[in-house]
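Before the break, one more example. Copy the sequence into your notebook; we will annotate it together after we see the structure.
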Amino acid sequence: MASAIELVKQSRRELVEKIIENMKKGYLFSPEEWDRKALQPYNPVSGFHYLGGNRIRLAMAAINAGYQDPRWMTFIQAKNQGYQVRKGEKSTLLEKWIFTKEVKEKDEHGREVKKTERLDHPICNYFRVFNAEQVDGVEPLAKQEVLKEDEILKLTDEIFQSSKCSIVEAAQEMAFYSPEEDQIVLPPRAFFKSPAAFLSVALHEMAHSTGHPDRLNRPLMNLFGTEEYAREELNAEISSVFLEADLGFEVEDEGLRDHSNYLESWIKILKEDPNELFRACQTGEKISKYLMENYQEYIENEPFRNLTNRMEVAAVKMAMKRSMKAEDPEAGMRHIKDWKSKYPKLDGDQVEKIFRNWAKEKFPDKELSGTGEPPVQQRAPRRYAMGSDQMLQRTFQGKLPEEFNQEDLLEFMVDTDLLVSGKITEETFRAIKQCGYCYQSGKIFPEEVVDEAAEYDLSPEEFNARVSSDTAKNHSQDIKKLVKGLVSALDEAKGFCKAPDLENTSSMIEDFDMEI
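Here is what the structure looks like once it is written out:
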């Protein structure tokens, strides 16, 4: 029986032979128009998106078999989900490389702990998957709309704005990236058959631009006609095809564009070493990931372009987060109102305007109420009331300490800035989170303060000290004694005791391109 490494080698050779056959005919994947979903293969059970060489393997398998479904799974996964792989269906082999192992050792206290170590030599393995169209019982795939022309025009502008180098359209017929000037030059859009064709060429040149020393740092000053030049063209071609699939648009009548000059070089280097395809897939994956991250960062920050203060940006982001969590924009608006009342010197009107525009697009069926006036003070003023011991005691939010539930106690700890002694159980840790608070370094803070502080790489205490004009709260000793007594009572009831065991577990890299 063949070993894993032998099977993977054979699989690579077969894939490269198919690619070479296509290249001899003038195309990379298929001469016909094909569904870009083939280049977005994923596992619906694990949620994993296949990458690099495995991505190309599954794309070729889908194109050759005519599959329209991008979902793939193992036989066992299908069985566990209650599906049935049809008799006679053939699987597709994918490779898997294991780089780490988990070992047990003892720490300085003699306790056994788990540790992840990197292997001296990666272990080659493989697994087999079936397309959803080979499996009975799988739910129908939700219809995915291809981007319309106006959406592609908008996407193009956003992609260009996210570029780390300048992009210019000039009245000439060549598209190229200039490493010396760090600039992309494109023919006018009117020269192309469609907006999608224009964006496709632009993505190819943007892929080249990632080789700049300040980005992914690849050799770009290669002479035309050399194998090094052809390798870089293959990197850019594969990454641009990945990007087209990830961005969700298709280009009609697309072969290898005008890459006839490189075909012979590509065929030559692939024949000499099949691993070249997998190196190109790995590089193409890195390029597409880099450009997608830049694009996503631009989309994420674009709504805040009119804000100059980081606290204003943090306020909008927090309002968005709360709206998504509650599935209701009113939750975010309440945060905006409260924030405006806390920081009247900042541009609260602009913050609210940006949030409202976002909420209108994100929640088109829900209309926001409110005009941005400061919210009604939620916390009731402290006062005194007669306790069960017939002694006058101070209340918090209208309640006596003996009437506190867990949430009241947590809010009171925050309000009094109480330092909690001891450590907490996982149960109490979760209870704190459920109440909307975070426990850090013996103190309890509202979740929103922790999130806002993280925006500026500050601790919650540092954040409060910088933004609050009244951080030093003077509370009477009898209140602190009272709360410490409540903490002691919780301690006896195992509310505050052993620290939570938040043990990290190692993860295995499932899909990676290795040279064999």
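The longest strand covers residues 112-131. The two ends are 19 Å apart (CA to CA). Try to locate both features in your own notes.
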